[in-house]
Amino acid sequence: MQRWSFFWLLVAKLAVAELDCDGVTCEVESIHLLQHAHTREVRKSKAPERPEALASPFAEVLVLSINEEKYKLSKAELKDQGIVAVSRVKGFNASRDSELSEALALLTEYGNANSLHHTVSNWMLCLHTSPGNPPNFGAANSEFWRNFFRSSPRNVSELLDRDQHNCVPKVVAIAAAHLRLWKELAEGKLQTKEVEEKDPWYLVMEEDVDLCPYWRQRMEKELPQAPADAEIIKLYFFGHWRKEDEVKVSVRNDSEPATVTPFLDARDPLRGFDLFKAASYEFLHGASWSSVPVAGFYAGTQAYLIRPSSARKLLKQIRGKPFQDIDMTMMLSANNYVWRRVLAQGRPENVDLLQDGATESHGSAARTATATAPQCNMEPPSDQFW
C-alpha cells in the first residue's frame, strides 16, 4: 500500500512540475520571508513597556534543547519579555551514537520501538518535514526503490539499520526527547519553584522557536476561552487545517450564531482523503517539489502548553503503541487544541541570508502555496480544495 501511495505521489508531482509561481506569488513569498527574518526586531519594537506587570499564565518555560548557545538565546529573549522561570530540558543529539542509543532505549522502555505505525518506513521518514526543513524527495526515492523487493522493517532498530540517508535518527531523537520531558514533568522533576495551582500549565518550547509579538497579552485574554477538556494546547502548528475544526461556544439566544473561539480542535491529523486533497491543492496552485508538506494536519511540537496530569495521561496512552512522528502520537493520545492565530514561530537558522534576499530554494522551503507555516498573529489562509 505504501509503495503504490509513493508511486502516485511521484506521478502527481511530475504532472505539476511545470507549474511555477508567478511574479505575484513569488513576491508575496519574499515579503513574508523578510517579515519572518525581522521577527526579533518587530518583537522588540512592539514589546509591552512593563512585561512584568502581566501575570504569567503558566508556571514555567521548559526549553527542549541540544545546543547550549541556542538555549541561552531563548532564555535571554524570554527574560526580555518578563519570563524568568525558564529551564533547559536536554534533548537527544541524533548525530551522536551514544545519545541515539539512549533515545532508542527510552522508546523501548515504553514499548514504542517494538512496532511501526503504518505511516512509518525508511522512505516515508525521508519525507519528514518541518518549517525550514523541506522533505528530501531524492533520498525518499532512493530508499523506496532500495527496499522495494524487501519486507518492511518491523521495528525501530530495523528502521535504523536500513537507513542509508540519515532520515531516521532525528525523528527517533525528537520522539524520545519529548517522551523524556513528559516523564520528568509527570514525576515532578522539572518543577523548580513553588506554585499555587495544583495542576498548572507549563510551556514547552523547542530551542529554535520565538514567541510572537504580543503573545503574552493574547494568551492572558484567550487562554480562559480554551475548551475545558484541553490537555495540550499548541501555540504553533504547520500543515493544513479544517474549518470544521473551529471550536465554537453557543450563545444563550438560540437564534444567534455560535461564537468562534481562538482555538481549533486538533483531531484526525492523518485522515487520508484530507491529506490527498491538501497535497493536490498545493500542486494545483504551483507549489514546488520541496515545498509541499508531507505532514498531517496541525503538525509540529515546536511550542505547546501541557499540564503534569496531561503528561501522565500521555505516558499511559502511548505505552505499547507503534512508533510514529511524536506530534502525531501526541495528538492521538490526548485532547489537543491549537491556537488558530499562532503565538510562536520557528527561528530562521540563517538570518543574514534571509535579510540579504532568499533564493528560490529557500523561499519554497519556507512557504508553500497556502502558507502552511502560519504567520505570527495572522488568521491562517483559507485551506479549501478549490
Automatic annotation (TrEMBL):
Residues 1-17 form the signal peptide. Residues 359-386 are annotated as: Disordered. It comes from the Eukaryota. Keywords: Signal. This is Hexosyltransferase. It comes from Durusdinium trenchii.
